[in-house]
Structure formats: structure tokens, C-alpha cells
């Protein structure tokens, strides 16, 4: 299977090219890259990729799927929509978009074409562990992590999607109105999802470091608290979810689930 990738400035692109073209973890490979810079050329050389084009649209009709990894979610719509309208499956690596209008436009363009989007954090082993914790009827969910509202990559959307998407996995459903409070350099957001009180804590990193991702779930009969560790292969589970979508023809997440974290972040 021939897959194109756009967004080579993102470290996720390096992981994906290594996993598919060097480690060969699946019967699929990155056959084309989009870009016209030194980073793209180096990545092409590392992955044995001979097709490098300046614009993504040139690849419609010559690849079987597209992966979008641009750091800035504001760029995702322009890459995704033409491929989806042409019937080419697309994985939009986090975030789906940097706003609700663009996110809905991507999903509307898909129709019956396969499309998915999520944070890599949603699928890592520690996320699986806390999602499976036996706590009884869930009452509250709290997810904490680093996020910079002043990021050049559409602000809170760049890293905040990790926090919001993990919360959506732990407390699925349509988010209610979001209450926002600033505590020092942290944005605290609260909303309800199917009766569960969800608290998100977006802590702005410093030059010295950043807080790790963490999740806590309180239920009627127990509680679970879990640091969410990201090892060097943290992209693997999410990549496998995408490849499984291509193999089975089934989307791993429905439109409402993909839209929910974007809706939350848009209110911050």
C-alpha cells in the first residue's frame, strides 16, 4: 500500500517513516512526501522515498492513503478535503483542525470515505490501563498535561488536543458548556459529559521543563490515577489503528468523537 505524508516538520513524521519504511512493521510504506525543504529531503533519504513533491494535491490518484502530520492544525483542512473528495482515505494526526468549522468541513468532505483523527496519547498503554480501571460508575475525570496557549501552531490546539482527546476517551459523549479559569500559568477547563464532571488542566511549559501527562478517574466504588508515559514508540499504537482502518474499512472513531475535543478547545 502506497501512503503519502504531508507535514514533515513534525517529529511524528520521522517515527512513521521509520516504522513503515525501515522497521517495516506492516505491509504499507510511505511512498511520497510533500515538502520542499532540507528536512523533507533528509527524511526522504532516510526512508528510501524517491517521490517528493511541493504540494499535496499532486499526489491525488497516485497513492492509496494520506497521513497529515502538520503541527499547525490550521493547515489540515486544505490538505485533507481534496483527498477525501477524491475518495482517498486520510489520517489527520492531531488535531483534526484548529477550529470547529474546519473540523466539520473535513468530516463533511469525507462522506463515506475513510477518515480518522486522534491524539497518539489516546492509544498508549497507560491510557488503556486507566480506561479499563474498575471504579464503578464514573463520577469525575481529570486530565493534566503540558500545553501552550501561545504556541505558534494555533495555540492551545497543538498540545492541548492530547489532554482533551484522552478525556474524551475516559468520559465519552458530547461535552456540555465549558467553564474556564486561569490559575497562574495553567488553564483549567470544566464541563460535563453524560453526567461526568470533566476537568482539564493545561499547564504552560517553561524553559526548564514541562509537566507529564496524567489522568485520574473517580467512580462510585473506586478510583484510578495514572501517569501517562510516552516512550520512544508511543506513535506505534495510533499508527496501527490507522492501518487497521485501511484493512477493515471501519472508522475507529465516529464524527462526534472526533469533533468533541475540538469543540472543547475552541471554548478556551
TrEMBL record:
GO terms for molecular function: nucleotide binding. It holds the Pfam family GFO_IDH_MocA. Transmembrane segments: none annotated. Residues 1-112 form the Gfo/Idh/MocA-like oxidoreductase N-terminal domain. SUPFAM superfamilies: NAD(P)-binding Rossmann-fold domains. It comes from the Bacteria. This is Gfo/Idh/MocA-like oxidoreductase N-terminal domain-containing protein. The lineage of its organism: Bacteria, Bacillati, Actinomycetota, Actinomycetes, Propionibacteriales.
